[in-house]
Amino acid sequence: MKSKRANVNIALLKYWGKKDQKINLPHQTSVSVTADIFYTRTNVEIDEKLIRDKVMLDGKELTGLQYTRVVQHLSTMREYFKRKEFCVVTSVNNVYVRAGYASSASSFAALTAAYVDAIGAKVNEKELSQIARLGSGSATRSIHGGFVVWHQGHDHESSFAEKLPIEWPEFRMLFTIIDPSVKRISSRIGMQITIEKAPSYDIYVRQSNDLVAPMIDALMKHEIDTVGRIAERSAELMRNVMLEAGLEYHTPMTQKVIQSIRSIRSKHRIPVYYTFDAGPNLILLTLDKHVDQVMKLLPDVKIQVSGVGGGISDADL
Ligand code: PMV
């Protein structure tokens, strides 16, 4: 069966909070790198005889909240393209869901591309990223490969992701598996709680947006230390407002590994940095030539290494 493949992406500059929840307009411009080891493949078949959508994920028919989220995005796309027919969605996620990593970016990017393909609509990548955003914020960045900027924008038209003109094949992400359990509070809800409860949320938004130009500049110059330092600052700024709002996603083990990363950097002079999302796992950022040494210095941490991945592509399912 033919399908569309979308890779997961990791934000080097985070977004955390929406100014419009209906169309997922973020408060911040974010910058990400697409990974090549974790992805979703999705096929969509339009079926005029169906009276409701059918969604298969990893061989099982979806029900409940997960089903509702998929159907909501399908309904949004039907409205967008002025279509009526229901469809059968067949999707396969690879292992990262079970490792505790969020899957919404690759899932909604693949679903968007597969639906557009199924109805035969002609849509460019910019528009595809706008439509993917309606399903899940971070999905807007997974349309593209490489290094990507998501311009926050002020309405549907101006909020889209764009591939940056950066080739950096030596860049590596090391996905640690610190706690594989599913996170308790979803990003969607966590962001809202943060906006409502964190006293310095507005300052955070300004500080976060101030990092965009320096991050893109450092990526262009392949300066791993500057990229790493800014990525850590972005993640820690996000964590500060989460904590102000009473949200703790880290476990003691997360903090312990962060200490190890800092000591690898200072004692061994290896450029390795960390980032994290709304969960306990860290993603380490480094270069190809340092991967073996970093893994040797973290013998107790389960790690999966990823290079830089591509954008939406055709794949067999
Ligand atoms: O759009 P969501 O619900 O997948 O939220 C993603 C939020 C973070 O992963 C924490 C940050 C980011 O920019 O990806």
Short summary:
This protein is α+β, with helices and mostly antiparallel strands and 317 residues long. Helices cover 38% and strands 26% of the residues.
Structural summary, described in words:
- The mean pLDDT is about 95.
- Helices cover about 40% and strands about 25% of the residues.
- Helix 1 (about 65-80) packs across helix 2 (about 105-120).
- The protein has 2 domains: about 5-165, Ribosomal Protein S5, domain 2 (2-Layer Sandwich); about 170-305, GHMP kinase, C-terminal domain (Alpha-Beta Plaits).
- Strands 1, 4, 5, 6, 7, 8, 9 and 14 form an 8-stranded mixed beta sheet that branches. Strands 11-12-10-13 form a 4-stranded antiparallel beta sheet. A two-stranded antiparallel sheet has the order 2-3.
- With about 325 residues, it is α+β, with helices and mostly antiparallel strands.
- The protein has helices at about 65-80, 105-120, 125-135, 185-195, 200-210, 210-220, 225-245, 250-270, 290-295; strands spanning about 1-15, 20, 25, 30-45, 55, 60, 85-95, 145-150, 160-165, 170-175, 275, 280-285, 300-305, 315.
- (3R)-3-hydroxy-3-methyl-5-(phosphonooxy)pentanoic acid binds near residues 105, 187, 188 and 278.
